[in-house]
Amino acid sequence: MKIKSIHILLAIIIVIGGGILLASELDLYNTTRVKTPRKTAEGIADVIDMRGSHSLEEIEKYYKLPASSVIEAFGLRPDTDPNFFQLKDMKEIFTPVELEEGEYIVETDTVKVFTSLYLKIPYVSDETFYLPEKTVNYLIENDKLTGEEKEYWQGHAFKLEYLDSKYLTASEFSKIVVEEAGGFKVTGRTTIQELLDYGVTEEKFEEVTGFKIPDKKLVSFRDFVIDKGLEFGEVKDKFIE
Amino acid sequence: MSKKSKNKHLIRLAVQIFFLALIILISVNHFRSEQGLAPLLIGNPSLHAVCPFGGVVTIYSYFTEGTFIPKIHQSSITLMWLVIGLTLLFGPVFCGWICPFGTVQEFVGKIGRKIFKKEYNNFIPSVIDKPLRYLRYVILLLVVVNTAISGKLLFSNFDPYFALFNIWSSEVTRLSLLVLGLTLIGSLFVERPWCKYLCPFGALLGIFNLFRIVKLKRNEKTCINCKKCDQACPMNIDISTSKTITDHQCISCLLCTDEMACPVSNTLSFSLLESKSPTENSKNDSGVKVRESISGGGK
């Protein structure tokens, strides 16, 4: 039998098109992440399934790890919106650290280790992990480490530094003084709704950020900007101009 | 090119444009979703979710831990198996008909063909070209092993396909943009340079050419040795000297076959069974086509 172009076309439709339809019916064609982590034999959410796109709220929901603990342990701003802040956002906040093994970035895997220690659930990985001093201290203060663990993690800790020097730590947050422009203050706590209420037009918002106003207007403008990969300080200055 | 042959070309072209448009739509939808806008026509999966190579890179973690590496989803594994199934039947049809990045290179190559005419796709000396063709296997090995070790999607750091269709995203690295730029420039001189020398997924699918069920065969008895098949092949395979084409670079585009370039019927075709004998050919309409070709009235 001779195979021609039309046969290849039919084969593509049947194998690829039909295959996708069949797989969809069998629930084998998920194009989005499965949010719910799998359960371990002990019936608890598996830390390995923690993803960079999980928000702090989702982490709280699935792992019973309070969002406030992550915020405090990692020195995030206390006004961080748990519903909006995703674990991968950490990369945009903290400076990569030069360690003996090379460059170390605070990201999802770091939160996995923290979760494992905080909740005392296993997390096995071949990588050597480090934790920020602040996080180790938080675990010690909350009596989450055994003597041996305490010794180990104190030897595998580093000083946490923010990429943006204006990023405010929890203790400094209450003292924020922000720049003023046209009678209103653009602070780290300013929500997008507040910007609109102060008279920032949709056009101005789009011109400055390069993005349309999101549906969720109660999120902080700062979190929105960081999520889009922009520098808060720079964008804020453009509003002032 | 005869009208009939042109129509056959259109079938493949239509498939290529369909998949290219689909990927562009997915890319646009992904962008729209990040702007808080509703997706158009279809959903907004990520590009990783609709790339079968994602299934290959996560294969280790899938079989050892039952998980996917970050950014890869179930759909990638499913697509990988479907593409492998199709490849087992017809060879790398995915490369020649479906892959949007192959299509883009081919379209850019049409400009190069116009500029350089017969010299196009013949710039690289055979002594350099042949060993370079195996580089993609080294890349395949490096990608799969390093992904298994790191558990991360390292390939996207230099993947020109991801860079092209996700160019608006901050996820695209400078390295991948550089690879994309070089590939597109290279396509002006060489047909499908990424596919030939670097594509790890093409490398994997190319292995199936050795044992695909539907084989590309040349009938030595009826072949008039005009070498039109060699000239038509985008991957520079020496088709006119082989009986069964098992070259790992074949992308099953059908451009060389008697449906397209070959002027003699039943001489070069994809077939499940052996080609017909010359005696049988003479009984069919093929003789007319041979005479046309010899007298210059063919393709």
Give the topology.
The complex is a heterodimer of chains A (241) and B (299).
Chain A: E1 2-3, H1 5-25, H2 56-63, H3 67-73, E2 97-99, E3 102-104, H4 108-119, E4 131-132, H5 133-141, H6 147-154, E5 157-158, H7 170-173, E6 180-181, E7 184-185, H8 192-197, H9 202-209, H10 221-227, H11 232-240
Parallel strand pairs in A: 4-5
Antiparallel strand pairs in A: 2-3, 6-7
Chain B: H1 3-34, H2 53-57, H3 59-64, H4 74-90, H5 93-98, H6 100-116, H7 126-132, H8 135-150, H9 160-165, H10 174-186, H11 193-198, H12 200-207, E1 215-218, H13 228-232, E2 244-245, E3 268-271, H14 278-283, H15 286-294
Antiparallel strand pairs in B: 1-2, 1-3
Helix pairs in contact in B: 1-6, 8-12
Tell me about this structure.
- The complex is a heterodimer of chains A (241) and B (299).
- Chain A is mainly alpha-helical and 241 residues long.
- Chain A has 3 domains: 1-31, no CATH class; 47-158, no CATH class; 177-240, no CATH class.
- Chain A contains 11 helices and 7 strands.
- Chain A has helices at residues 5-25, 56-63, 67-73, 108-119, 133-141, 147-154, 170-173, 192-197, 202-209, 221-227, 232-240, and strands at residues 2-3, 97-99, 102-104, 131-132, 157-158, 180-181, 184-185.
- In chain A, strands 2-3 form a two-stranded antiparallel sheet. Chain A has a two-stranded parallel sheet with strand order 4-5.
- The longest helix of chain A has 21 residues, at 5-25.
- Chain A starts with a strand and ends with a helix.
- In chain A, 27% of the residues are buried.
- Mean pLDDT of chain A is 79; it is low at 169-182.
- Chain B has 299 residues and is mostly helical.
- Helix content of chain B is 53%, strand content 3%.
- Chain B has 15 helices and 3 strands.
- A 3-stranded antiparallel β-sheet of chain B has the order 2-1-3, with no helix packed on it.
- Chain B is globular, with a radius of gyration of 21 Å.
- Chain B starts with a helix and ends in a 5-residue tail after the last helix.
- At the A-B interface, strand 1 and helix 1 of A face helix 1, helix 4, helix 5 and strand 3 of B.
- Strand 1 of chain A pairs antiparallel with strand 3 (268-271) of chain B.
